[in-house]
Write a structure and sequence with these properties.
mainly beta; 4 domains; 8-stranded mixed beta sheet; 8-stranded antiparallel beta sheet
Length: 496
């Protein structure tokens, strides 16, 4: 620094001159910087003045200014968003908020100190929150925008909304179209929790239902269960009946506590969606105990008995029929087996098994056509007028109608008066050839073309003649031969 305390008579050196020159140069440079700073300050002041001039009208009324910010939630359930405007003043500035292009009512957010917008409900990560700050909004005594102080070039409340719409995809037109879409309750289904009382419910939505017209729908959560036919009054448009799709009133308990249901208006009633379809005719008696079934009147519990298996074995022991009683109700897959008692084996022909029992009865011979010897008797019995009758031990039974021929051969020990008689169905046969006496030791007696019906029984009896003048002898044997035409057959059994 140059010397400043000079005395009279002191000598000024070259160094002193150099120091003085340097400081003069530095002062000149500082003056230039100061002049530049003064210029910048002047420009800044001018810009600020111009800005302030733009904020007021020619009459000095403040003009409306907006600041728009788009913030994105970076936390799940986030509710607080900070306003980036440094000059924000909560008491004097106005804030409007939109969520994913939907303008929120003031009931859904608030502004808290120092400059935080707080949503009533948290949002998901990535949700866009639009915040606009309105400065210099002329406020009247009732808190609304005062028309009395609005200048010609200030912005009305509708234009405030338009300004905010500009930041929505599609701009004002897109926003208005989207808002119209949202207000169409035939396309959009709002949600509400009911109020009122059981069977007389009310619901309110925001935005409000403009008109109750055919096709509008609402999803509601019922705060109390219904006890019978019910109505819904949506946004005060009048109580309308809640019906099923088939037109019937809802039944008690159809609307559950805290149950969420969708209702669509058909011009007369609210139709409960997903209810009132066709039901079958099954009732409690047709539904198994322990199960339930949906009906027009709601769920009902089944009363059909649930029975155990009815598997059983029934044994036939005689002429009586075995019976198995099945209880009413449901019966699972079961098997009922019928069998014959083993004691019936003697009633079944040998070689046959019926009902699990093998037969032991000897089969009766069947004679169909031709000449057959069907039975014989041998012995040595004296025959006279006092001797008992001798029956051949056989019985012939016809199995079809037709004609038949019998021939008997009697063996005797000598000439005799023994005769053979034919019995049909228990009586002496009188048709055709009558009984004949044997004329030799080997006498033949025959009966030709005997007419018979199905089931006729033929038997043979030997006896002495009543002619006492004949010599009486002994019967040694007897054979019976029958001749059967085609189409007729007989069975043979013992007479005893």
């Amino acid at each position: 620094m140059a010397k400043t305390n000079w005395q009279y008579g002191e000598i000024v050196t070259e160094e002193d001159f150099n120091q003085l020159g340097q400081e003069v140069n530095e002062a000149t440079a500082g003056l230039a910087v100061l002049e530049e700073q003064l210029g910048e300050a002047e420009q800044s002041s001018k810009a600020y003045t111009d800005q302030q001039i733009q904020l007021v009208t020619a009459t000095g009324i403040p003009k409306l200014v907006t600041y728009t910010y788009v913030l994105e939630a970076d936390q799940q359930g986030q509710t607080d968003f900070e306003i980036p405007l440094e000059t924000f003043v909560k008491e004097t500035d106005t804030v409007t908020v939109a969520q994913n292009s939907t303008v929120l009512s003031t009931e859904r957010y608030s502004v808290v100190d120092p400059k935080i917008v707080r949503l009533a409900e948290g949002v998901n990560i990535g949700t866009e929150i639009f915040i606009q700050v309105w400065k210099n909004v002329p406020i009247g005594p009732d808190g609304a925008i005062s028309a009395a102080v609005l200048a010609n070039d200030t912005v009305t409340e509708s234009k405030m909304t338009d300004e905010m719409k500009k930041d929505v995809p599609g701009g004002v037109v897109g926003y208005d179209a989207f808002a119209t879409h949202l207000a169409d309750f035939t396309q959009q289904i709002p949600y509400a929790v009911t109020a009122g009382s059981a069977n007389a419910y009310t619901a309110s939505t925001t935005p409000a239902l403009p008109a109750l017209v055919d096709g509008v729908a609402i999803t509601v959560k019922f705060h109390v269960v219904n006890t019978g036919a019910s109505t819904l009054n949506w946004n005060g448009k009048g109580a309308k009946a809640i019906k099923k799709a088939n037109g019937n009133d809802i039944s008690s308990g159809n609307l559950k506590l805290n149950g969420v249901y969708t209702l669509r208006y058909d011009g007369m009633s609210f139709i409960l969606q997903g209810e009132g379809g066709e039901y079958g005719t099954a009732g409690a008696a047709q539904v198994l105990t322990g199960y339930s079934i949906g009906t027009e009147n709601g769920l009902i519990n089944g009363t059909m008995p649930n029975n155990p298996s009815q598997t059983a074995t029934l044994q036939i022991t005689g002429s009586a029929k075995p019976i198995k009683s099945i209880p009413a109700g449901y019966v699972p897959a079961s098997m009922i087996t019928a069998e014959l008692a083993p004691a019936l084996a003697s009633k079944i022909l040998s070689g046959n098994t019926i009902g699990g029992v093998a037969g032991t009865a000897v089969a009766l011979p069947e004679i169909q056509t031709g000449n057959e010897v069907v039975g014989s008797w041998t012995g040595n019995v004296a025959v006279n007028t006092t001797t008992s009758n001798i029956w051949a031990n056989l019985k012939i039974i016809t199995q079809a109608a037709g004609t038949i021929k019998f021939e008997t051969t009697l063996g005797t020990s000598q000439w005799n008066g023994i005769i053979c008689q034919l019995y049909k169905n228990g009586a002496v046969y009188l048709g055709g050839a009558r009984t004949k006496a044997a004329n030799s030791s080997s006498g033949i007696v025959s009966w030709d073309d005997i007419t018979c019906a199905k089931g006729d029984v033929f038997e043979f009896l030997c006896t002495a003649t009543t002619d006492n003048s004949l010599y009486k002898g002994s019967l040694t044997d007897m054979n019976v031969k029958i001749t059967i035409p085609n189409g007729l057959f007989c069975t043979v059994t013992n007479r005893s």
